[in-house]
Amino acid sequence: QEEDRKKRKIDLIYDAFDKGLTSIDNKYREILAWSLNYRKRVLLIAGLVFLGSMVSAFFVGAEFFPSTDEGQITVNVSLPAGSELHETNDIILEVEEKISGIEEADIVFSSIGSGGMMSMGGSESSKGYINIGLKPLSQRKRNAKAISDEIRKLVRDIPGTEITVVESSMMMMGLGGDPISIGIRGDELETLEEIASDFKELIEKVEGTREVGTSFSEATPEVQVLVNKYQAASYGLTTAQIANTIRSVASGVTATRYKYEGNEIDVVVRGDDSVTESLTNLEQIGIPTMVGGTIPLNEIASIHVERGPIQIIREGQQRIVTVSGQISGRDLRGIADDIDKSLKAYNMPQGYSYEFGGQNEELNDAIYDLFLALLLAIVLIYMVMAAQFESLVHPFTIILSVPLAFSGGLFGLFITRRTINVPSMIGVIILAGIVVNNGIVLVDYINYLRKSGMDRDEAVVRAGPVRLRPILMTTLTTILGLVPLAIGIGEGAEVQAPMATVVISGLILSTLLTLVVIPVVYTIIDDFSYKLKARLRGQKKAVTEE
Length: 546
Fold this sequence. Notes:
- The protein has helices spanning 2-37, 39-57, 85-99, 144-155, 189-204, 229-234, 239-250, 279-283, 332-344, 358-389, 394-399, 401-416, 422-451, 456-487, 497-545, and strands at 72-78, 105-112, 127-134, 162-168, 180-186, 209-214, 220-227, 253-260, 263-269, 286-288, 294-296, 301-308, 314-315, 318-327, 353-356.
- By secondary structure, it is an alpha+beta fold.
- Strands 5, 6, 13, 14 and 15 form a five-stranded antiparallel sheet that branches. A four-stranded antiparallel sheet has the order 2-3-1-4, with helices on one face. It has a two-stranded antiparallel sheet with strand order 7-12.
- The radius of gyration is 36 Å and the shape is elongated.
- The protein starts with a helix and ends with a helix.
């Protein structure tokens, strides 16, 4: 009895499902018959849908890769050049104390004497970083971006310190660098520094930019010794001799090596530490002359303190300074366009130029490469279908379902407020290969019925409802399989979500329109082909009679 009750429930569900599909079949048959009578209206509706999707593309942002929440935040701390380690340590401890109240923080790791995990610079006593590991996403209510914004508010009042907060992502390491990256080329370092400073101010005014900085490192104090060559020559001294003497006293020279228990130990001879403690002591270094005796250094050289750059970066045999920054609240393409408009109004000095790099450059290159891959995919799909149908006309009919799928993909990104990026472009390429399956199934059966002797319009009306269920089954299985990816559950799932969104929305729209548009286009092309063949036969007959 229990088994009979379960069987009746299953039968009820099956009957309800079957009745639903039967009603869909009947309704689809009516729509298909209507569309064959009003073919121009159907094409007009499809065209309007396509144009609407193109318009929606202007409201869909673009970026290289979507930002991900991997539960890692890095706080980079930079003090004025020349700061001691203990000063940097005090600031790091102050920052740690300010962020100690963040509940989502799980592990906090600090390092002093380096420019951060993502820094390309070497060890510097004035730099340090704090790496914050957050709790799993399921155990916190806020994402990494919201927590980063809170940290910025907590540490912005620390004086004399430059602090930047970045949401770290292992997936994004090496993928294009910073979102904003502008390289300025030229010859004079002073002019490059001035331009970079102006660019920084202009970029900071653009909505959505944050933590804008330049690669021009703060100059460090250095002691410069300017030798009076004529005065030195009167004592028989050369610049090299003077430099070697200063080096040996200040830094020391290796006089010999001492062997002890199989090891060689350098024996370094240098002057007293008091020499490097003040400029006055340095000026009194004794420089041996050629005639014997010594003279003080200030007799033949002037000594003063200047600031020199830590590093000079060259690219393509030209000096280059980079202005870089992060983005927040807006897409990369929109911010890059606003920055470009602002910089075009800037009066660049003669011989200096700038160019966009970073993720914006990578985005443009990726879109171009993926567009070429998409064209190649469409060509290959057409060639395969041409070989399968042994016709050049029918594959063209089916290929028209691809633009409808693109429209669905753009609408999906617009509705979900996601951006055009590398994963979504890959989704478009995948979509091009999937959506043609429905058209192939439908057109192949129409051709089969026509070869059996059935009239064209009757074959179209009959083939549509027969192939409706297989088309719906294949579409639904693909869509349901991609739903978890489109929702974006879990850490780092934001990367796959745009791709799944494009495929799902493209399949939905293309399936709905393909079931109507493809049969209509099939009949239009068939009419055109018949007229063209008739005209060619008429011309051939006329030539024969002549």
